[in-house]
Structures are given as structure tokens and as C-alpha cells.
Design brief:
There is one protein chain. The protein contains ten helices and five strands; from the N terminus they run βααααααβαβααβαβ. The chain has a five-stranded parallel β-sheet with strand order 3-2-1-4-5. Helix 1 runs antiparallel to helix 5 and helix 2 crosses helix 4. The longest helix has 14 residues.
């Protein structure tokens, strides 16, 4: 794909490993006996999506958890449980993406929230030789700041408008098919990364994109 100049990466399960089930396990470790009820309540009220689109702030999200779990949980305990799903950013991925930067401009677009951002940004800063994850990429977009999340095509309309990219020169990598399909609807090259595959599997030895 000689025309591709810009590659936008998703974060979860593409760059950082995640385990959503770890949140409920951590809540149970903190003495919460109705973790499943909390999850269902947050789904019913749309709290997850509201947090990821900035329609509620972290304090409101924590209060929504306490409303079901009880007032004994502190802010830091809730954040610790909520961040438990964020695992590691493997060195081989960062090393490979550093190689990619010699040929492409790299960007990040993530459905995320302020609590998670603080956590993985600190991890990236403390693990790699960068002041933070934003400094690794040429540009970043986060759903909680944009007010919209994937797979809404509006995400990609905003990106193209702000960056003034030609969509024919842009590729988007995501582990969810509906997200790359949304990008493709605006002319962006979709690169689906299914379970068991790595970023490096999308490129040949000369860093050309495999299609």
C-alpha cells in the first residue's frame, strides 16, 4: 500500500493487553459481594459509555459504583479496581512501532476515559523512554475528549477534519471488526487485528502493509 502515509492505532488489545474480567475480581478482593450487580447496573444506566464520551466525570462514575457497592469504597480503591483490566504494553510491540515510525506517521485513537488514561499513560511513561504515551505518537484522539466513541463513523469524520488527511493515505488498526468497518466507510484502509495476531503480522519485512 504505497499510498498509505498515516496509520492510526486502537489501544486496547492492539497495543495494551486488557482483561475486563479483572475489574470484577478486584472488586471482590476489596470485599464487594455484588460485583456482577454493579456491572449490570452500569450497563443499564449507560455509565460505561457516558464515561467514555465525557458525559459523566470520574467522580460521577465512582459514585455510580458506590450507589450499588456501598460507601465503604474509596476513590483510590475504585480506580484501582477499574484499572485492573489494564495489563501490559509488551516491549516487542513498542519496538516494532518505533521501526514503523521510520516510514509512517503513527497516531492513536482509543475509546477510553480519564481514569484509564492516567493509568496507562503513567505505565508508558515509567516503562519507556517517553514523557507519556502522547509523545510517542504524532497525534492522539480519545473518545472521552471527543464526545463520541467507535464504532460511530463520526469519530473518523472528526479525525479527518482535524488532521486534513486524505483518507486514501490513512490506515486504521483495531481488534474489533465493526470499528475498522466504520473507518472504511469514510475511505480509510481497514486493518482488522483479530485475536491471536500481532501488529507486526500486518506488515512484511520491508514494513509494507499486507492486504
Amino acid at each position: 500500500m504505497e499510498k498509505i502515509r498515516h496509520i492510526i492505532f486502537d489501544l486496547g488489545q492492539v497495543i495494551i493487553n486488557v482483561d475486563p474480567a479483572a475489574v470484577m475480581k478486584k472488586l471482590e478482593d476489596l470485599g464487594v459481594s455484588n460485583a456482577d450487580e454493579i456491572h449490570l447496573k452500569l450497563q443499564e444506566t449507560g455509565a460505561y459509555n457516558k464515561l467514555e464520551t465525557g458525559r459523566i466525570q470520574p467522580a460521577e462514575f465512582r459514585d455510580a459504583i458506590r450507589a450499588v457497592a456501598g460507601d465503604h469504597l474509596s476513590d483510590s480503591e475504585i480506580d484501582e479496581a477499574w484499572n485492573a483490566m489494564l495489563l501490559d504494553i509488551p516491549k516487542e510491540r513498542v519496538k516494532f512501532m518505533t521501526r514503523l515510525k521510520s516510514r509512517y506517521k503513527l497516531y492513536l485513537m482509543s475509546n477510553t476515559n480519564a481514569i484509564h488514561w492516567e493509568c496507562y499513560n503513567a505505565y508508558f511513561r515509567d516503562t519507556y523512554d517517553y514523557p507519556g504515551i502522547n509523545h510517542f505518537f504524532s497525534g492522539t484522539w480519545y473518545s472521552y475528549l471527543m464526545g463520541v466513541r467507535k464504532p460511530d463513523p463520526e469519530v473518523f469524520r472528526i479525525i479527518l477534519e482535524e488532521s486534513r488527511f486524505d483518507p486514501a493515505e490513512v490506515a486504521f488498526v483495531d481488534d474489533l471488526k465493526e470499528n475498522v468497518d466504520a473507518a472504511a466507510s469514510l475511505g480509510i484502509l481497514p486493518l482488522h487485528l483479530p485475536p491471536g495476531r500481532e501488529i507486526m503480522d500486518l506488515f512484511d519485512a520491508e514494513l509494507n502493509i499486507k492486504v
